[in-house]
Amino acid sequence: MSEQTVTRRGLGYESITFWQGVAIIFGANIGAGILSLPYGAREGGFLALVIALAVSGFLTTASMLYVAEVALRTDKPLQLSGLAQKYLGNLGSWLIFAGVVINGLGALIAYTGGSGSIIADLFGIPELVGSVLFYIPGVVVIWFGLKATGRSEQAITVAMVGIILLLSGWTFVGPGIEAERLFVFSPYYIVPIVNLAVFAFIAQYTVPELARGLARHAPEKLPGAVVTGMCATGFILALVPLAALGMMGADSITEVVTLAWGAELGTAAYWMANIFALLAMLTSFWAIGLTLMTNVLDRFAWPASGSPRHRLAALALIAVPPFLIATLGLAGFVSALGYAGGFAGAIMSVVPVMMLHRARQRGDKEPAWRAGWISHPAIQVLLVVVFGLAFVYSLLTALGLVPQAWA
């Protein structure tokens, strides 16, 4: 079977490099979440945020490694919904598909609103026009598929990391940070911060894409790409709130952090901070949009190549609804992230655990890599409990039943 062989579901193997895989994980995670974390953590403080990031990051990485082993045990390049159908049946497939769609659309809603706000602020144009300008490069790269996305992610990720390291260094050396602002700690607020952090880390649905790009020529590199991408994500997710909260304090943090952070450092830094924000949203849009589109193609058995109308239909399904919801003002920036993270987090934690057990029983082949200690039953239980509670929190928030301070 050649690399371009099309499976029953229309998805074929492609070839990406290890660092392109890392960039896809990093790009998916470093998006709207990083821009909203400082604001979401303003009441709990930086220490509460660090705890939330550590818990969410470790458990999400474990879940992603479960998906990696499942993908490596499977002959055909399936997306999450396809893997769930193979090992759990139609119910599992629809559950995971719902999780991917809810989380992905929640993210794209946030990117649409956030990018439109930033571009409008930078250039003095209507937010709607800004959102349209953001969407054009977003959908074009997704249309061309995994290779185009991997290459684009790698190039833009290098620029993003450079910008954020420069801004953070500028903050520490220039105005500096006040230590007392970082030692604020209100454990009571860890719960809502975890809910937001779950979203910032939740990139399980990108793992089958990495497997599709690495399984044929370097399957043993798949877990390394996942762990490297997640560690880089955790570092940056902590660095930005460290600099912003340490310099400005909780009272001055804006919902999109780069607006206030850049303004505090001056005109040049303001532009740099907001260019970083746009690039972060764009890379995340690419990674999440691509996996959403391929999940639609996979779940409905539409051809991934050779049928432009099916590809266009899948792209429209994942791009048009979030654009309309965001531009019509139907979902707030942080609230969209929190709801998406909670609802999808529960499904994204439980289903990979179930798939791992079933794939170990009746997978197609022995994998090039197996999850070891990280698949210990205690970790699996902790994963399900923590993400399940995040789901309960989102449900109660949607119903207006959480304490006022958490809302």
Please describe what this structure looks like.
The chain is mainly alpha-helical and 407 residues long. It has a single domain, classed as Amino acid/polyamine transporter I. It is built from 15 helices and no strands. It has helices spanning 18-29, 32-40, 46-72, 80-123, 127-144, 146-173, 179-182, 190-201, 207-214, 222-248, 257-265, 267-299, 308-327, 333-362, 377-398. Helix 3 (46-72) runs parallel beside helix 14 (333-362). The chain is globular, with a radius of gyration of 20 Å. The relative contact order is 0.22.
How are the elements arranged and paired?
Layout: H1 18-29, H2 32-40, H3 46-72, H4 80-123, H5 127-144, H6 146-173, H7 179-182, H8 190-201, H9 207-214, H10 222-248, H11 257-265, H12 267-299, H13 308-327, H14 333-362, H15 377-398
Name a few traits of the molecule.
Amino_acid_transport_2, transmembrane helix, 15 helices, 74% helix, mainly alpha, 407 residues, Aromatic amino acid transport family protein, disordered N terminus, Amino acid/polyamine transporter I, globular
